[in-house]
């Protein structure tokens, strides 16, 4: 399950992390994906300093200008600089994606380990995830937001709930396999408590599958957040998120198609990069997982 | 076979009960006071208290839950606050559009995904395979509402081939209504075609490595016959599963697509219900959509036996 290779490696000392990085570096497409992600993250983090204009600054005199040297991605219907708004939008998309991954990973791992390790609870917990997965992602998110109200944190909570079963199912599947391994038997024979077995023996072996799955959750969360904001039930429309930018550009898109093009492309590029990296991680960490759910 | 169906129906009933309970929790427990929301800001405390009694909200939560289960079992989904009609009626009057849209989108997704997946598998490792796999990844990463807006921009506004939005005038002929659904179906189906393509490719690759494929080739059968009859038929089960899954994704996607194209379907009704906090409609939509999803999964399981006669439950 860990990144220990089954071929002999020259040189005695190579940490699993180094090996993983080497395997990733061998695939050019994965490197490209990582570079894109690093770039978008850098632009997002440094937006307050790097963005050429303040994202909310309106200049009605220059509204709906096509891309030019002074405004690389043009201006919107209020004369705001599209590039600057995109950079600030990236902050939001990544923040939401990251927090959703944190929420669903913690909750999903907990549920999955309990279901996989505590036999009595397995059936009930898995039927619960079945029930949660019977709702389309976006419908469940919308319903939760209807109850919670709009806003950034509520979007995170809703999407966290939506994606928890995905992590839980993978974690349970891997835990079921791990539980039958000899090292778990050995620990049980030595009198280790259940908590100790979970924390010391199971969790470290769950890291790879969880990391892989969470890159995909990251990607889905960005896409779904954009859709929620587009529908007007997600992030409040005054905040420049990629979904909000597309929503507000709808009215003027036939005069200014770049207003829709730019954020759409940003979403696609980020999501593609995340998926490429996810695929790469999966192949590098464990080829056997390639065909998992 | 019969025992399998009965067992499968049993677990389906359990899942549906859980679904109904989740819906109850989401709709009744999390939000504040539905009565206050229904009456709006101008309501007096006395009005709210009266409505609470009328809706049964003053009773213990367990009793409320029992009443709720009894109501949905008898097909009573309550009355929409915003549309001012029974939820079932409101949904049925919009169901045709959403049903047609979903069917057309599944057709689009299959028509693009399956052939491309087959070609990519046959061309494995060659340039065409890489190009198609990359295209699929891009398609899966585009927000469907963005695809919709782009299609409107080019095919409706600039070329004028399709209507910009809407579902035609009431009572227009079926072909006219279908014309309104072409672009929405494309916007909805294209991202899902990527998923179907990936599954088709993987499933075909598994089958193409089998001995009987080599035998079929060795005895000189035309390549097309081997691929389409010997291989695709045997690769069909995972593909069927993913198509079943796709329908669920599409039902969710319809919410967004109907909003983009201003289509008066169930999806748009759900968005309006959320914006107006129309709880009975949200509740009904959650129940109906998840029930359809669970039923589709059952249908897919049963279809396995039809596609693959070796499967006997």
Characterise this structure.
The complex is a heterodimer of chains A (293) and B (313). Chain A has 293 residues and is mostly helical. Chain A has a single domain, classed as MetI-like (MetI-like fold), CATH 1.10.3720.10. Chain A contains eleven helices and no strands. In chain A, α9 (194-231) runs parallel beside α10 and α10 packs antiparallel against α11 (258-285). Chain B is mostly helical. Chain B folds into two domains: 2-85, no CATH class; 88-307, Orthogonal Bundle (MetI-like fold), CATH 1.10.3720. Chain B is built from 13 helices and no strands. Chain B has helices at 2-29, 34-39, 45-55, 61-73, 87-122, 127-141, 144-158, 174-208, 211-218, 223-234, 236-260, 266-275, 279-307. The longest helix of chain B is centred in the middle third of the chain and has 36 residues, at 87-122. Chain B is globular. The model of chain B has no long low-confidence stretch (mean pLDDT 83). Chains A and B meet through α5, α6, α9 and α11 of A and α1, α6, α7, α11 and α12 of B.
Can you count the beta strands of chain A? Answer: 0
Helix-strand topology string of chain B:
HHHHHHHHHHHHH
CATH fold node name of chain A: MetI-like fold
In terms of DSSP E residues, the strand content of chain B is under 5%
**On the 0-100 scale, what is the average pLDDT of chain A?**
82
Which features does this protein show?
heterodimer; A: 293 residues; mainly alpha; MetI-like fold; disordered C terminus; B: 313 residues; 2 domains; 13 helices; 78% helix
Give a quick rundown of the structure.
Chain A contains eleven helices and no strands. With 293 residues, chain A is an all-alpha fold. In chain B, α7 (144-158) crosses α11.
Outline the fold blueprint:
The complex is a heterodimer of chains A (293) and B (313).
Chain A: H1 16-26, H2 28-45, H3 47-50, H4 82-117, H5 119-133, H6 137-148, H7 152-179, H8 182-189, H9 194-231, H10 242-249, H11 258-285
Helix pairs in contact in A: 2-4, 2-11, 4-5, 4-7, 4-9, 4-11, 5-7, 6-7, 7-9, 8-9, 9-10, 9-11, 10-11
Chain B: H1 2-29, H2 34-39, H3 45-55, H4 61-73, H5 87-122, H6 127-141, H7 144-158, H8 174-208, H9 211-218, H10 223-234, H11 236-260, H12 266-275, H13 279-307
């Amino acid at each position: 399950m860990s990144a220990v290779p089954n071929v002999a490696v020259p040189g005695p000392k190579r940490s699993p992390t180094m090996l993983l990085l080497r395997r990733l570096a061998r695939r050019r497409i994965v490197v490209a994906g990582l570079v894109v992600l690093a770039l978008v993250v850098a632009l997002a983090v440094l937006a307050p300093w790097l963005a050429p204009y303040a994202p909310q600054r309106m200049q009605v005199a220059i509204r709906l200008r096509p891309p030019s040297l002074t405004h690389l991605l043009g201006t919107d219907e209020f004369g705001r600089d599209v590039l600057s708004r995109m950079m600030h939008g990236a902050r939001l998309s990544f923040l939401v994606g990251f927090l959703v991954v944190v929420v669903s990973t913690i909750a999903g791992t907990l549920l999955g380990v309990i279901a996989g390790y505590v036999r009595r609870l397995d059936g009930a917990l898995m039927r619960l995830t079945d029930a949660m997965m019977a709702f389309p992602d976006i419908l469940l998110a919308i319903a939760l937001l209807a109850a919670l109200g709009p806003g950034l944190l509520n979007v995170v909570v809703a999407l966290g709930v939506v994606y928890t079963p995905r992590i839980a199912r993978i974690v349970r599947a891997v835990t079921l396999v791990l539980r039958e391994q000899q090292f778990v038997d050995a620990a049980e024979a030595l009198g280790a408590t259940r908590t100790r077995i979970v924390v010391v023996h199971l969790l470290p072996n769950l890291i790879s599958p969880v990391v892989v799955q969470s890159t995909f959750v990251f990607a889905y969360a960005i896409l779904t957040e954009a859709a929620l904001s587009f529908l007007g039930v997600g992030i409040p429309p005054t905040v420049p998120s990629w979904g909000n930018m597309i929503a507000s550009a709808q009215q003027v898109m036939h005069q200014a198609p770049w207003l829709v093009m730019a954020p759409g492309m940003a979403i696609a590029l980020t999501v593609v990069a995340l998926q490429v990296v996810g695929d790469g991680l999966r192949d590098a960490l464990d080829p056997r997982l390639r065909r998992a759910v | 076979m019969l025992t399998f169906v009965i067992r499968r129906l049993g677990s389906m009933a359990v899942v549906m009960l859980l679904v109904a309970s989740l819906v109850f929790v989401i709709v009744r427990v999390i939000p504040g006071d539905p009565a206050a929301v229904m009456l709006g800001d101008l309501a007096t405390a006395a009005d709210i208290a009266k409505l609470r009694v009328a809706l049964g909200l003053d009773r213990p939560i367990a009793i409320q839950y029992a009443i709720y289960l009894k109501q949905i079992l008898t097909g009573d989904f309550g009355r929409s606050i915003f549309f001012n009609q029974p939820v079932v009626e409101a949904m049925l009057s919009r169901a045709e559009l959403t049903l047609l849209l979903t069917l057309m989108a599944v057709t689009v997704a299959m028509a693009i995904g399956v052939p491309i997946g087959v070609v990519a598998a046959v061309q494995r490792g060659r340039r065409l395979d890489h190009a198609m796999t990359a295209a699929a990844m891009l398609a899966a990463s585009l927000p469907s509402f963005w695809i919709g807006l782009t299609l409107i921009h080019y095919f409706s506004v600039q070329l004028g081939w399709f209507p910009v939005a809407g579902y035609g005038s009431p009572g227009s002929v079926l072909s006219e209504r279908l014309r309104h659904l072409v672009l929405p179906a494309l916007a909805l189906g294209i991202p899902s075609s990527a998923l179907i393509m990936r599954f088709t490719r993987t499933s075909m690759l598994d089958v193409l490595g089998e001995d009987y494929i080599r035998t079929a080739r060795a005895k000189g059968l035309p390549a097309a016959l081997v691929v389409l009859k010997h291989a695709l038929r045997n690769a069909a089960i995972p593909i069927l599963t993913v198509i079943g899954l796709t329908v669920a994704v599409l039902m969710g996607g319809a919410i967004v697509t109907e909003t983009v194209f201003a289509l008066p379907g169930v999806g748009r009704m759900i968005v309006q219900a959320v914006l107006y906090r129309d709880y009975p409609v949200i509740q009904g939509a959650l129940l109906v959509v998840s029930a359809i999803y669970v039923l589709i999964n059952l249908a897919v399981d049963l279809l396995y036996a039809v596609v693959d006669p070796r499967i006997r439950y």
